[in-house]
Design a protein that fits this description.
The chain is α/β, with parallel strands linked by helices. Helix content is 47%, strand content 16%. Helix 2 packs parallel to helix 8 and helix 4 crosses helix 5. The radius of gyration is 25 Å and the shape is elongated.
């Protein structure tokens, strides 16, 4: 409980700072002399644009993997917030030209890049970059844009939009007409540049000094592979079971070829770390071709999903679907290595019996843990005596303890989105406390 309180206090601090730096531009605009003869809607549109620009600059701090920022919430929550607040920033910035044109249609001439002033050109170019960024981010899968290609251009377009937007603001000049206003926005700019320096230069350099070497690749059930690595010249990664990391193979930390995966090995043995990866697309299709001895880089750990933040629990419930078993295996292995005697229930949904990843090891863990396992198969064999179909509310009500007291049993959920949505809804209907339900919703784009 002490760990949870510490994260709660830190989380409130970061929220307060985020709100302050998001709203500060609005108050900055109201202070000091205001140009005469400028109508309300024009000034209001400018205020919205400044607020949107500040929000956009803050997005880089959210996604730069600054561990103290992400720890109180977990990366999935941070990225979810990033997706939503980015749309708010986009709406605020877009409202600036729309309100201007509605108030004075003659200003539409500013869209003519051949005759417009350079400050107008900078604004139009920045807004164009931002529109492309938002469309590509929201429609990446429909447009079939490869993940790492999208990540590269997402960063380029985001940086370009900020630079062009600030160029536009400084060239207009009316709203930065006193030294302290210019100084404050220069402070924003310097802080933003420092975040970029950390993410694109300092962090890769740190990772370069702590390489890993692949020691084995194991074929698992379910078209899945476990890649095990050992640290080279350093002590390895200290992590909590359930967390994830970004890994780079066949490249360097500067090469923009990293991918996030949950750690599947025990936190009690950081001398060797493992990732279990299902062949689904892009990089994952190449995992089977990796060879022992190849160099790798690991950036982590990240995420708040795991038992160590819920060490007060009297019981753990793990509900997994398919490769969502990966963080659960890290927690199960860690509990076994710690000789933890608390009861654990594992509900594991799969398409068929042969595709159950880690099936043999899960059965073996029953000898080391107070573990009950319930398999749910969509397409069971003819002689199957267990649960069939999907995880339903009726099944959960029958299997789970009737004890609903908050903090008694902590429930961890990871798997395909439709399964997670249905299970989470069922758990809430069964009156489990939302604080006791922990879902790993891992979608970066």
């Amino acid at each position: 409980m002490k760990i949870a309180r510490n994260y709660f206090v830190r989380g409130l601090l970061w929220v307060g700072l985020y709100v302050f730096f998001s709203l500060a531009p609005l108050f900055i605009l109201l202070a000091g002399p205001v140009p005469a003869g400028r109508e309300f809607w024009r000034e209001f549109s400018v205020a919205l644009a400044f607020a949107g620009t500040a929000l956009m600059m803050l997005q880089f701090a959210l996604t730069a993997r600054i561990r103290p920022v992400k720890e109180p919430y977990g990366s999935d929550v941070v990225y979810f917030f990033h997706h939503k607040i980015s749309l708010v920033a986009f709406g605020l910035i877009l409202s600036h030209p729309l309100l201007l044109f509605l108030g004075n249609p003659r200003l539409l001439s500013l869209l003519n890049v051949f005759t417009a002033s350079w400050r107008a050109r900078a604004g139009v170019a920045g807004l164009t970059a931002l529109i492309i960024l938002v469309v590509a981010a929201s429609k990446r899968q429909q447009l079939k844009i490869e993940y790492n290609t999208w990540r590269l251009w997402h960063g380029i377009l985001g940086i370009g939009a900020v630079v062009l937007g600030l160029t536009h603001a400084f060239m207009v000049g009316h709203y930065l007409n006193v030294p302290w206003k210019r100084g404050l926005w220069l402070t924003y700019l310097i802080a933003w540049l420092l975040v970029l320096l950390y993410y694109y230069v300092l962090k890769p350099l740190q990772l370069m000094r702590k390489p890993y070497e692949i020691v084995r690749i194991i074929a698992e059930r379910g078209n899945t592979w476990t890649v095990s690595m050992r640290p080279v010249g350093h002590s390895g990664l200290q992590f909590m079971p359930g967390q994830f990391a970004w890994i780079t193979v066949r490249g360097t930390p500067f090469s923009n070829t990293e991918n996030p995966f949950s750690i599947s090995s025990s936190a009690e043995h950081p001398e060797e770390i493992s990732f279990t990866i299902k062949e689904l697309g892009d990089f994952t299709r190449t995992v089977s071709s990796l060879q022992p001895g190849e160099k790798a880089y690991v950036d982590g750990p990240y995420g708040s999903f795991g038992i160590d933040r819920q060490d007060h629990a009297s019981k753990f419930v793990f509900i997994a679907g398919g490769v969502g078993i990966t963080p659960m295996m890290s927690m199960l292995r860690t509990l076994a290595d710690r000789n933890d005697s608390r009861p654990v229930q594992l509900i594991y949904a799969n398409r068929d019996w042969d595709g159950i990843t880690f099936r043999e090891e899960i059965e073996a863990l029953k000898q080391r843990l107070n573990l009950s396992v319930f398999y749910v198969l969509e397409k069971p064999p003819a002689d199957w005596q267990g649960e069939t179909g999907f995880i339903t509310r009726a099944f959960l009500e029958r299997i789970l303890s009737a004890e609903r007291q908050r903090n008694f049993q902590e429930i961890f959920l990871c798997g395909p989105k439709p399964m997670m949505d249905a299970v989470e809804k069922a758990l809430l209907q069964l009156e489990f406390s939302p604080d006791d339900i922990h879902a790993e919703r891992f979608s970066l784009a």
